[in-house]
Every structure is written in C-alpha cells, then in structure tokens.
Write a structure and sequence with these properties.
4 helices, mainly beta, binds calcium ion, 589 residues
C-alpha cells in the first residue's frame, strides 16, 4: 500500500468517526419539532408531551397494530414508569430496580443491558421504579435507587462515570429522569418520607463533576464549583427551631426548562415530618412563620449557578403530604400570554406567569376538595382549619390527634404521572384521581433511615364506579370540558398529538387513544399488565409509531389503603409495547 492509499484510508476513518452521531444541545432544544427522535423526558423540555405528528389521526387510529414487544425479564416485575428515549436507531428504556436497556428500534432486539448493583438496605418509599433516562453527547444518563447518577456509553453500555449524590442509608434515593441543560445533567433527589433535605444538583455531563447544588429547604447552604455559594432562604424565617435540618422538600420528579427565560423549574415535595404541628403550622399568623419554605413549592433556578430566581409555594403549612413536585408545563394561552401550568397534588391547577412566576389563576380539577375552600388572589390557599389533622398534644392521651377525612388523599388529585398540553386544542389533559383519606397526626422524632411521618392514614375512594378520571381542562377558564372515568386509579402519563389523539394507559392494562375533543375511546389494546408508564410517538420509515411500557406497580399497591385492596387482583409485568400505523392502512377509514 503506498503512502497516498494510507492517507486516504486515514481520511475515511477520520470522517467515519466525525460523522458518528452525537446528541447536541440543538437536538435537545428541538426535540418537540424533530419527530424522528425523542431525546428528552417530556417530548421537549417544556414537558408538553405533544407531538406535531398527524399521520396517525382520529380516522385511522383503529388501524394501529403492534410492531414488536420487549420483555424486561427477570423476576423484577415491579412498576414500570419510564418514558422511552429514541436516538440514532436505538430505544433506551429504564426498568424497575435501576435497570437500563438499549434496544434496536426497528426490530426490538436487545443491544445491551445495564443492571445497577444495588446495595442491601436501599430505602425507596414508593416502589422500586425509575422514570427514564436522559441522553447527551455519547452518553445516556439515569439515576439509581441508591442515590447515584450513572453515565453510560450509549453504544456499549459501559460505565463512563458514576457519582454518589447522597447517602442511601439516610433515606435518599433517586427515581426521576435527569434533564440536560447546557451540558449539565440536572437531577433531584427522593426521600421526603425519611426526613432528607431536598436539593437540585447540576453535574458536568462529560466527567460527572458537581457544578452546583441547591438545597430546597431554608437555612441550608448551596454549592458552586466546590465552594459554598449562598444560603437557601433565610434561616428560621418560616421554620421553627432546628426542624429545617431534616425538613424534606425532596425534588423527586425532576424539572422542566424554559429557554426563553433561561429558567429551570423544579418542584419540592412535602415538608418533613408530615405532622405539621411540629413545624409551626398550627396557628395561622401574619408573618407566615409556619410556611416551611421551600417545601411544597415550585422553584425557579438559574441553570448557570443554581441560584433561586423565584418560587411559588402551592401548599404553605402543608399537612397532608401534598408534595409540590408535579411537573410545570410551559405553554402559550389563547390570548398569547406565556404561562406555566401545573396540576398540584393538593387538587388545584395553577396558572403562573412565565416571566416571573407571578400567580395568575387556580382552579380545582378534582371534586370535593376539603382542606381549602379555594385559592385567594395571591395564590394562597383559603384553609378550612377544621379539616387539618388534629394536634396530638391537644388529644387526651397526647398520642394521636383528631382524625379528619381529607380530600384529596395524600396520593393526590394528581400524582407524578405527567399531563399533556395540546397545541392543537389549547387544553390540558390531566390524569387525576378522586379519593380521600382518613388522616391523623402522632408524635415523632427524627431517626436516620427511619420513616419520619408522625401521621397515620387510610386512602378511600369517593365514588362507587371510578377513582381515575382523565380530565380535559381549558386552562383559560378552568372548565372541565370532558372527563374519562376509570375504575382503578390512573397512574400513567398522557400524550397528545396533532392527529387529535390523547394517549394514556390504565392499571387494568388498557393502552387507549381518545378523541381530544370528546374523550371518546377510539382505539385500545390490552398490554397484559397495568400501565403506569409514559407514552411516546415518533416517525420511522414514513410511518408513525407509538410506544408504552406496561408493568403494574408504583405507590398505589403499597400505600393505597382500601384502594390497594380493591386493585390487588392486578397482575405485575414488565414489557415495552411498540405500535405502528402501516403505510397501506393510513388512508383506510
Ligand atoms: Ca411525600
């Protein structure tokens, strides 16, 4: 081989390397518009879960057929809550017990699998779920139940880096899908039922170095580039004594990102312990000293530094486990105003101004809310004080406070399962549940790694025929345009499409497509186990595909009280189902 031939070979090799696909910031920013791949949790960082694809529509959805299915195998058949990621011919899914699978998206063949070696003694509160991966550059990222974040080579599954976020023995864990913003892997933590301290973390995507950390509870110091940065809030402004040190506010559902205002929005869970009398919430007062910031809040962060830009607390003086973690979706209303929409555990849907987080409006989205009569003009709940669980120290034996029946129950008017905003209709599609609970408070002291509640509870249905209710809501008026009732509680994500379809799944195993204007079920498929996953859609070889994970689990069977008994017949599983609309059937009505 002469010298010329060698240099040609080298050039071809170099070109081959350079042409290897890498997930870029542009890919992530354009995820909603680029229908050939899905590279973000939420099908776009604003979490609308709306696809502009309309090949599949109300007329032809009846022709949607299975393409392939994939079993997660093993005996680890617990809740499968992940949203798949698709890039460069590969689908990435995460499974229960901190597993990640890479699958050939055309054939369903497994390419590689990563199993986190979890230590004995992990403390996941609410099933061993994982809600999905993030992808960037050459890596795929996900969090594990022992409170670590792992970067894997997306081609081989080899570990690139693996970082301990926090101590799992203190109750920290991790279940959310990470988010990528400007080369940083943004994650939160789980463990609000163990008295952890919520925080948001930004890791360098390349090497896993911690760039910044922002605790969500006032009094704790932030970090930036290895140095202390600023304190979160003002020490003891809204927390009595030392209670802030184990104050909860876990950021267990991850966040959204608004490029226009360069803002990360992330929610913080319940303050710890659940017993609000121990956190100064007993007496309403003028300076709001028992509000317990920034638990049960949405928090806006500067992605460069982790500084708090603004916050909005949905449930000050929280006493019902109304975590404030639910997703915040950026959208534009019918008058062209830029808004955030979020449906809280506490039963109210909030509209906020996207510039500064100012409160715009709030509407109840479930029935019979008992803890508040409404939301005032400042966005603060109007409490019905008699419906706060009673103070144990006021009880005769000082042991158990007065029991109240509270609506919603602690699993929320809506829990983690993401809603969708349709750009086609301008409406939100909210997976909600109608249930209440008997709840009472008890004394409690903090002990590392032990449940830190100071409360007891039993969840109960409100209606004979349904608990779940998928609701189409006009965010400009709060009007419920239609609702689709389901026997078991809804626990799956929702997706809308430009084809006029709303996709979601039920614990009874049905993957369903509804008419976005009427709520009529236009198509359904029985997946064999309960659906608590999140649907996606994409275009491949000129056809529209849809996928969903099936595998019953999550918090309901563990914590659902009377509801859990009602749904104990449901079978567990662990499958990824993929569907396609064959070209030849696209025009067949
Ligand atoms: Ca909680």
């Amino acid at each position: 081989m002469n010298r010329f031939a060698i240099s040609v070979c080298a050039a071809i090799l170099a070109t081959g390397t350079a042409a290897q696909a890498q997930v870029t910031n542009e890919d992530i920013a354009n995820d909603q518009a680029n229908t050939s791949q899905v590279v973000t949790n939420g099908m776009g960082r604003d979490l609308q879960r709306y696809s502009p694809l309309d090949m599949l529509n109300k007329d032809n959805v009846k022709n949607l057929v299975p393409a392939w299915a994939f079993s997660l195998g093993g005996e680890k058949q617990r809740g499968q809550e992940a949203q798949p990621i698709i890039y460069d011919g590969v689908m990435y899914i995460t499974g229960s017990y901190s597993r990640l699978f890479a699958i050939d998206v055309k054939t369903g063949k497994e390419l590689w699998q990563y199993d986190a070696r979890l230590p004995e003694g992990i403390l996941p509160c609410c099933d061993v779920v994982n809600r999905g991966a993030a992808i960037y550059g050459d890596n795929v990222y996900f969090g594990t139940l022992d409170a670590r974040i792992v970067a894997l080579d997306r081609k081989t599954g080899d570990v690139v880096w693996r970082k301990k976020m926090e101590d799992y023995k203190a109750g920290y864990s991790y279940t959310a899908a990470p988010m990528i913003v400007d080369g940083k892997v943004i994650v939160g933590n789980s463990g609000g039922e163990f008295g952890v301290v919520g925080a948001v973390y930004a890791y360098d995507a390349e090497n896993g170095d911690l760039i910044w950390k922002r605790p969500t509870i006032e009094g704790h110091m932030g970090e930036l580039n290895g140095e202390p940065s600023t304190m979160t809030g003002e020490l003891n402004a809204t927390w009595p004594g030392d209670m802030w040190q184990t104050g909860g506010g876990a950021t267990w559902l991850g966040g959204s990102y608004d490029a226009e205002t360069d803002t990360i929005l992330i929610g913080a869970g319940n303050p710890a312990p659940w017993n609000s009398w121990l956190r100064g919430a007993g007496e309403p007062n003028e300076n709001n000293s028992g509000d317990n910031l920034y638990a049960a809040s949405r928090i806006a962060l500067d992605p460069a530094t982790g500084e708090i830009k603004w916050h909005f607390q949905t449930t000050p003086r929280e006493g019902w486990d109304f975590d404030g973690v639910n997703e915040v979706v950026a959208y534009t209303d019918r008058d062209g105003n830029k808004r955030w929409g979020t449906a809280d555990r506490n039963g109210f849907f909030y509209v906020l101004n996207r510039e500064d987080g100012d409160f715009v409006n709030a509407y109840p989205f479930v029935e019979q809310i008992s803890w508040a009569s409404g939301i005032d003009e400042n966005g603060r709940p109007i409490y019905i004080e008699d419906n706060r669980p009673g103070n144990p120290s006021a009880a005769a034996d000082g042991d158990k406070g007065e029991i109240v029946f509270a609506v919603p129950g602690f699993l929320g008017g809506k829990n983690w399962m993401p809603m969708s905003f349709s750009q086609r209709t301008g409406n939100f599609y909210i997976p909600s549940n109608e249930w209440g609970m008997d709840i009472w408070n008890e004394p409690i002291t903090y002990k590392k790694g032990a449940a830190y509640l100071g409360a007891g509870f039993t969840i109960k249905p409100l209606f004979e025929d349904h608990i779940g209710a998928l609701k189409a809501m006009d965010p400009d008026t709060g009007e419920i345009l239609w609702q689709y009732n389901n026997g078991a509680p809804l626990w799956a994500g929702v997706m809308t499409t430009a084809g006029g379809l709303v996709f979601t799944g039920t614990p009874e195993g049905r993957f369903i497509a509804l008419d976005d204007e009427t709520g009529e079920v236009l198509w359904e498929f029985q997946t064999g186990s309960g659906i608590v996953g999140q649907p996606i859609t994409w275009e491949q070889d000129g056809e529209q595909f849809v996928a969903i994970m099936s595998g019953w689990g999550g918090a309901v069977p563990l914590w659902g009280g009377e509801v859990a008994k009602q749904v104990s017949y449901l079978n567990q599983g662990g499958m990824l189902w993929t569907f396609r609309l064959p070209k030849e059937l696209a025009a067949v009505q």
